[in-house]
Batch of 2 targets.
Target 1
Amino acid sequence: MIRTLTTMALAGALLSACGDEDYDATALYEELQAANYQKNWSRPAKYNKLTALSKNSNHGDQGIIYYNDVVSDALQTSGFTKWPAGSIFVIDGYLEGKLNQTAVMEKRPSGWFFAAYDAEGYTKMSGEDAENLCTQCHGMYEENDYITSVPLP
Ligand code: HEC
C-alpha cells in the first residue's frame, strides 16, 4: 500500500514536471511515433498521399498532412472559431522523393506549439524560435486559426 502511494506520488511529480512550459519537442515527436500517426491518423483529402505542395511552402516539394482524433472529433461538429486544445497537425515534407522535414502544430491551452524535425527525428526548431518563422506564413491563415489545409468546422 505504502509502495503504491509512493509510486503514485512519484508519477504525480513527474506529470506536473511535464507542464506546458517545459514541454519538450522531443517528447512530442515520441508521442507522434508512439501513436503511429502515419498509419493511424486521418488526412485531409487534398493531402492524403504524397502531393505537390504550394510554391510558398517551406515544407518541401511534396507532402502528406495528418491530424489526430481531437481534430477529427471537432470536424464532426460545427461552430468552432479555434481548433480545440489537444489538436495536432503534422506535415511530412519531402524533397525529391525523400522525407526532408516533419513539422508539427500542437494546440495547447496557451496556444499553438510549433516544432520542426529532420528526417531522423532531431528537433530543428521548436517553441518561440519556430513560432517566429512558422507564423510568417501560418499567420496569414489567422481566420482559420493558423491552419491552412483543413477549414474550421
Ligand atoms: C513559407 C511559408 C511557410 C512556413 C515558413 C511554414 N509553413 Fe507550414 N505550411 C505552409 C503551407 C502553404 C502549408 C499547406 C501545405 C502546402 O501546400 O505546403 C503548410 C502546412 C503546414 C501544416 C499542416 C497543417 C496546415 O496548416 O495545413 C503544419 C502542421 C505546418 N505547416 C507546420 C509548420 C511549422 C511547425 C512551421 C515552422 C517550423 C511552418 N509550418 C512553417 C507554409 C509554411
Target 2
Amino acid sequence: MSQQSRARANAGKSRRRQNRSKICDCCGADVMFCWQCRCGFSMCQSCMYENQWGMTCNGITWECPDCGAQNGYGNQ
Ligand SMILES: [Zn+2]
Ligand SMILES: [Zn+2]
C-alpha cells in the first residue's frame, strides 16, 4: 500500500502574478527590477549602470554603498 500519490496533489497551482514593483533607493524610481543588498538597499538598473565604475571592480560583484557588503550580479 502506498500513499505517496496524494502528497503532491496541491503542488504547482500557484498562478499568482503580482506586479511587485520596487523603489530604487538611489533615484527613487519605480522599477520592476532592482539590484538588492541583504541590508535592504536596492538600486535600479540604470543607476547601477551609471555607478558601475564606483560599485564594482570586477563586474562580478558590486559593493553596497550602504553597508559595504559585496553582492553578486546575477543570482542573489
Ligand atoms: Zn535608480
Ligand atoms: Zn547593503
